Amino acid sequence: MMSTHLLPLTAPLLGLSTKALEALCVHHGEPAFRGRQIAEWVYRKGCRDFAAMTNLPKSLRETLSQQASVANLKEVVRQRAQDGTTKLLFELADGERVETVFLPYKDRTTVCLSSQAGCAVGCTFCATGYGGLQRNLSPGEIVEQVVYCGSLGKVSNVVFMGMGEPLLNYEAVLTAIHLLNEEVGLGMRSLTVSTVGIVPKIRQLAGERLQITLALSLHAPDDQLRRQLIPTQHRYSVQELVEACRDYVQQTRRRVTFEYVLLSEVNDSPAQARQLAALLRNLRCFVNLIPFNPIHNGSGFRRPGAEGIQRFRKELEEAGITVTQREEKGQGIDAACGQLRRRMASPE
Ligand code: SAH
Ligand code: SF4
Fold first, then answer.
1. Which is it for the CA torsion 189, 80, 125, 164, positive or negative?
2. N or C terminus: fewer CB in 10 A for the chain?
């Protein structure tokens, strides 16, 4: 029988691997397969309530209800756009808030998740960067954003493109990647980690030999401009970044994506497109153009018009670069990352 003391349980069960759940059960005098049953409920069925875990003995359900918890997140705001894009604002146990976006496309459904509350990097065009870093998220807090979105529709892809810099929360992000793969059942190839470019961590990630996609937020073809967009210590030189990506491609055999937020009259000239193309020559990569999303904080940046975007794109394509463009989703809701939380904190 389960001993009466399940505690100390420092964290909710969502965040523990099947193996850890099995060990927990065994430790409390239950058979190991109960751990597998709990994992099934928590990760594959999205169950947030022990009482509903009907294949567990009633006594175990009661003990768990009294002494443990499933979930880390509480939904506080939900915005849904016409196209089905849904933005969720979650509150964590300590009151911090993070955003998650559910994006249904024709051929896939993507969850854009947060890896930190806030961000220390402070890119000048990003709403998340303005408040600085509050704290790292735990693996459970990261993974639960995906599991929770399962109630909105079947999730096929995950991008670490919400709040925070994933490679500055490396261990938790790596654990979350493994949980998403092994517990939630998402293929490594459907996971994308987007980073501002923390070179030593890119190299460490390459060494993990995972089949995830690396997306590098470059935004500028030269160091002088990049320094204006990312004015903090978390910026590495363009040359170092491209080299780290080259090594990443070589080690993982995966193409790297370079993200480029287009800012009118800042980084969108044809000459800059040619400079970017030259930089990426002979590298197995894509460039993903992201038209700037205004963030209501007087950053002074503007999104280029459709023509300007097209011109930049054509210049890259003519130089032999494969270009993708972020599909515009979520019209009418606070689409830019960090924007919903900011607005809720200080209504504008
Ligand atoms: N910190 C990581 C991941 C989170 S940001 C990174 O910087 O890559 C995810 C992407 O959204 C980045 O490419 C970032 O540059 C972009 N982004 C941030 N603010 C934006 C805005 N206002 N408009 C458009 N893209 C933005
Ligand atoms: Fe942080 Fe990414 Fe925003 Fe830069 S763009 S402040 S790295 S979340």
1. negative
2. C
CATH class for the domain made up of 18-67 = mainly alpha
* Pocket residue to mutate for ligand 2, from 115, 121, 198, most atoms within 8 A of Cβ: 121
For residue 56, report the distance from its CA to the centre of ligand 1, in Å: 43
Q: What is the pTM of this model?
A: 0.94
Count CA atoms closer than 13 A to 133's CA, side-chain side. 14
Distance 327 CA to ligand 2 centre (A): 20
Specify the residue for token string 């599991």: 147
Q: Which ligand is nearest to the CA of 235?
A: 2
Model confidence over 300-324: pLDDT tens digits? 899 999 999 999 999 999 999 999 9
Catalytic (active-site) positions: 99, 337
Residue bearing the CA closest to ligand 2, atom 8:
164
Contacts of 102 by beta carbon, 8 Å cutoff, 6+ apart: 84, 85, 86, 87, 88, 109, 110, 111, 149, 152, 153, 155
